Amino acid sequence: MFIVTGASKGLGKAICLRLIKNNKKVLGLARDTKNLPFKSLNCDISSTEEIRSIVRIVRKQKLNITGIINAAGIASMNLALTTPSVTTEKIVQTNLLGTIYCCQLFAPFLVRNKNGTIINFSTIAVSLGLKGESIYAASKAGVESFSRAFAREMADFNISVNCIAPGPIKTDLIRGVSQKQVEKIISNQIIQKQFTPESVCDLVEILIDKRAKTLSGQVFHIGGV
Q1: CA-atom Rg of the chain in angstroms
Q2: What architecture does CATH give domain 2-217?
Q3: What residue spans define the domains of the chain?
Q4: Which of 198, 95, 106, 201 lies closest to 161, judged by CA?
Q5: What is the pLDDT of residues 189-220, one digit of tens each?
Q6: How far is the C-alpha of 120 from the C-alpha of 223, rounded, in Å?
Q7: For the chain, how many helices (H) and strands (E)?
Q8: Strand stretches in 39-87, DSSP E
Q9: pLDDT tens-digit map of 128-165
């Protein structure tokens, strides 16, 4: 069973649906899981207590966790100097600490099996240093750095840890980004087109395949940089 965060919409939901299509079991986590067509539980991943409550449920139900996909994330297009501190804290708490918490608290299930896959999410904003995304990029740069080091820590347990760093994918996350800004970002990609969640799901399929066990500690850019 794969634990997928951010499962209520966007990339998280698309990944859950693709996994189910491929006959994989899914446990989706999100703040609001109402009406989702797969097994899901309410959880704010920025809270260690809420994640621990999910851990207890997993143990009680004796679920066999084989992978963790940390797709939950938030963004705020704003200059650092004009970003309220509460927004800064929310971005870092969700994107960076939320990813770390999920890895810390769910990875022991994989360690016990001495097998598994962890996929974390970064962004093209890290590589390009996009104006107006400094705080968002900083939170995701932390995810990349954590993932590289965590991959080394997990290697002895046959667990791979990788990052996917998409460009502007067609989801609610870039709803506040103008088309002009989207086009400017795309112009910096090697493959200059806007991708869909399906492209991300294709890469997830590759990374969870047992033949991809030689890949760990890497950051994969959708579109290339």
Answers
A1: 17
A2: 3-Layer(aba) Sandwich (3.40)
A3: 2-217
A4: 106
A5: 888 888 899 999 999 999 999 999 999 999 99
A6: 17
A7: 8, 7
A8: 40-42, 67-70
A9: 888 889 999 999 999 999 999 999 999 999 999 999 99
